[in-house]
Design brief:
- With about 525 residues, the chain is an alpha+beta fold.
- The chain is built from 15 helices and 17 strands.
- Strand 11 and strand 12 form a beta hairpin.
- Bound molecules: flavin mononucleotide.
- Flavin mononucleotide binds next to helix 6 and strand 15.
């Protein structure tokens, strides 16, 4: 056995659903940047399939500041569930927040992106950091460092996580939130075809050494091999030099440093223990979830077979999807729900149904698709209210959980505003157990990332059928696990509300593209 669950269990008990106790930290949630670096400006907005820089411009646009979200004070109060009880809806000050194409808990964006390239006619070989404020690559180190990060024939994008970036707001819970966030970002690079292969099981310290980063504050969570950048071994390109000949220091991590000092020791212990993956034993038999056979009492009760739907094209929505503040009651049609669940859970050609990465990767096969989607339907024409487990193999919504789950789920959201509870709740469910036995504590972050991958697909699929979405982590986990009657060891990792958007005159959006 590679690992026992104790580190994961201890951390989970200090970081239950919702915000942990906030920490008194002064400072801003700043993107990282390299003040002394040579900058390579990327074309705005870039062009997929264009020349090398144009193509990179389009790729990194996936994490650029593409939208201004303009909230009135009244809008913020409403979003926090306090309006109109505060009695101050008339205040008109606008609070602009720059937001990115991917959803992120509290719009905190814990990821930093790095490009390791063998070089091209327009970009020297080297290690680059993406600066989202300038939409530019900052040259961190010269030379081809790819071999220190992964064995791959193409260029690499590293997605690093800053697991303590918003401890000031979310406390110990941010470690969990940030891992789901990284999955949502990773997912968009899979959907748009940027990543041809994903590595999740690298050694954190080795990659941090190649990036020149402090692994306590910033840790590589995923390494992506870039489509179209493969080069024959030994081929040279202009600008290739010896690796690591300059190394610069990044700025902007002050708030993370303070967060790392104040976070609960169990959160830091889990993070440290996740740095390596022990030699992999033979993985256990495929998890029940892969075949959709995860059982709950619901299996003996009736269900609903959804109709077959055409595969959705998610790509047109990658830059424009956004979270909405409220939903109309009864706004989801059964065929829309069928298409969204099929798209998110792997019901497309080639999918096996356990919601995974959908791109070659280094996970043991038995752990590659470990998730099951559950949903709670308050009101949707053609679907009786209640809780269901989605079985993609035969497109069944299998009745499960408490008979009054549709109303009980509202009580499991102590902070949710009423307009959110009109939506269909989709819960992404998984188990930490078998993965920890195989990979050790690293499985904690990997499973949360895979849940994040599903989150992004749910957002995009909702947009593709004309619906809207909002991810939520602010629910009572134990209450949800109970009302869904999940199999032993399984838990609701994250929730995505799906529905028809209600008008939200208090939140305006301005696209910068
Ligand atoms: C992992 C994750 C957790 C989230 N949790 C919540 C939540 O508990 N409550 C909420 O209102 N929004 C939540 N959100 C939505 C974010 O607040 C939203 O994505 C962010 O404000 C950026 O806005 P956008 O999605 O419109 O780009 C979450 C998003 C993610 C990815």
């Amino acid at each position: 056995m590679t690992g026992d669950l104790s580190l994961v269990t201890r951390y989970r008990s200090v970081a239950q659903g919702g915000n942990g106790p906030a920490r008194p930290i002064a400072g801003f949630l700043s993107p990282k940047w390299y003040p002394a670096a040579r900058r390579v400006d990327l074309p705005w907005p870039g062009r997929a399939g264009g020349d090398e820089l144009g193509h990179l411009g389009a790729v990194f646009l996936g994490y650029a500041l593409v939208r201004l979200s303009l909230y009135t004070q009244a809008g913020l109060a409403f979003a926090a569930g306090r309006w109109p009880a505060t009695g101050e809806p008339g205040r008109s000050r606008l609070i602009p927040t720059p937001v990115r194409p991917v959803p992120s808990g509290g719009a905190s964006y814990p990821a930093e992106l790095y490009l390791a390239t063998a070089g091209s006619p327009v970009l020297d070989a080297g290690l680059y950091h993406y600066n989202p404020v300038r939409h530019a690559l900052e040259a961190v180190a010269a030379g081809d460092v790819r071999g220190r990060i992964a064995t791959a024939s193409g260029d690499l994008i590293v997605i690093a996580c800053r697991p303590w970036k918003n401890v000031q707001k979310y406390g110990d819970f941010y470690y969990r939130l940030s891992s789901v966030d990284i999955g949502a970002l990773l997912s968009r690079f899979i959907v748009d075809g940027t990543a041809t292969r994903v590595h999740l099981l690298h050694d954190d310290a080795e990659v941090a050494a190649a990036l020149g980063t402090d692994p306590r504050l910033e840790t590589a969570y995923a390494v992506l091999e870039l489509a179209g950048s493969e080069r024959a071994p030994g081929s040279t390109v202009p600008g290739s030099t010896a690796p690591g000949s300059t190394a610069l220091v990044g700025a902007g991590l002050e708030i993370d440093r303070a967060g790392a000092d104040l976070v609960h020791p169990d959160a830091m212990a889990l993070h440290r223990a996740s740095g390596t993956v022990a030699a992999r034993p033979t993985p256990p038999e495929p998890a029940d979830a892969v075949t959709g056979a995860a059982t709950g009492q619901g299996d003996v009760v009736a269900g609903l077979r959804l109709s077959r739907t055409a595969a959705l094209d998610l790509r047109p929505h990658l830059l424009t999807r956004q979270s909405v503040d409220g939903f109309q009651r009864g706004g989801v049609r059964v065929e829309q729900l069928a298409a969204v669940l099929a798209s998110a859970a792997g019901g497309e050609p080639g999918g096996t149904g356990g919601a995974g990465l959908r791109v070659p990767n280094d996970l043991p096969a038995a752990l590659a698709e470990p998730l099951t989607l559950y949903c709670v339907v308050p009101e949707a024409p053609g679907v009786p209210p209640g809780a269901y487990r989605y079985r993609p193999a035969d497109r069944m919504l299998v009745r499960c959980g408490w008979p009054d789950a549709a109303s009980a789920v509202v009580d499991a959201h102590p902070h949710a505003r009423p307009a959110l509870t009109n939506a269909v709740s989709v819960f992404v469910v998984g188990s930490f157990q078998s993965g920890v036995e195989t990979l050790g504590p690293r499985w904690y972050r990997v499973l949360n990332m895979l849940a994040g991958v599903a989150v992004q697909r749910l957002y995009l699929a909702a947009a593709a059928v004309g619906l809207s979405a909002r991810a939520l982590l602010g629910y009572d986990i134990a209450a949800v696990d109970t009302l869904l009657d999940l199999p032993p060891g399984h838990t609701a990792l994250v929730e995505v509300l799906i529905g028809a958007a209600a008008p939200s005159p208090t939140n305006l959006s301005l696209m910068l593209l």
